[in-house]
């Protein structure tokens, strides 16, 4: 490793350490915890609804699990980031389908929640965090909100009346990894500016 690589690696390590400290501050403070939990839950519910894995039920309570669920858990349904449901839970007015999409949605929801929680914290107490009032965390959360269309993009286009080509449909499949990359980048971008004061 050359000496010219040391400052870059040091800067990256410092940015990651500051981001870790900033996210720790988000989960320690009661007000930012509330923002983080609310946004995470709301995003997960909207994500599952957008991909059709959360819908209105017909009433009653029922749990149905497919045979050999572990082998079918990783089975793709419509595209690279859409997986086959392995369980259906009906609880009164709600029907929920469990698949690997729930885990992916939860991961994205946590990133959105952390970004919005950190943005909230910076907005409420910029001097305590050591930075000004401007933050890109909220803006970086917007692509993730659109990532729900990664699985149901064709349906969205049909509803809008747009006839989609294969190239456009392929673009929808890239929204999910793009949203994750933007959210991680945003978290580091804002988190590296935070100076957590003891």
Give the low-pLDDT segments.
131-137, 143-169
How many separate helices? 9
Rounded radius of gyration (Å):
20 Å
Number of strands: 4
Shape, per Cα inertia axes: elongated
Tell me the helix content.
55-70%
How do the helices and strands follow one another from N- to C-terminus? Answer: HHEEHEEHHHHHH
**How far from one another are the termini?**
35 Å
Strand residues, percent? 5-15%
Structural class: alpha+beta
Mean pLDDT reading: 74
**Quaternary:** single chain
Q: Sheet with the most strands?
A: 4 strands, antiparallel
Strand order in space, largest sheet: 1-4-3-2
Walk me through what this model shows.
The protein is of the alpha+beta class and 198 residues long. It has a domain at 8-51 and 100-191. It has 9 helices and 4 strands, in the order ααββαββαααααα. A 4-stranded antiparallel β-sheet has the order 1-4-3-2. Strand 3 and strand 4 form a beta hairpin.
